[in-house]
Amino acid sequence: MIRKQVYIKPHHDALLKKRACELGVTEAELIRRAIEAHLATGPLIRKDISAWEREKEFILSRVKKGDQEKGRQWRREELYER
């Protein structure tokens, strides 16, 4: 095994101690299990913030156009006439 030193917040330490005691395992074993469980979920999908910015611009442009348009230009019945 390879030794690693990590820093955790006090409330994480309390949770870790409590759960390790409940499961009857060491804190180190619980950390190893958590790492395995996290890595087993598959690759993380990176969020493309620029995609959201483009979408936001599109939405705002549609909202601005909405002020110019006076309601729908079609009737529901027209959808079924085709």
UniProtKB/TrEMBL annotation:
<protein>
    <submittedName>
        <fullName>Ribbon-helix-helix protein, copG family</fullName>
    </submittedName>
</protein>
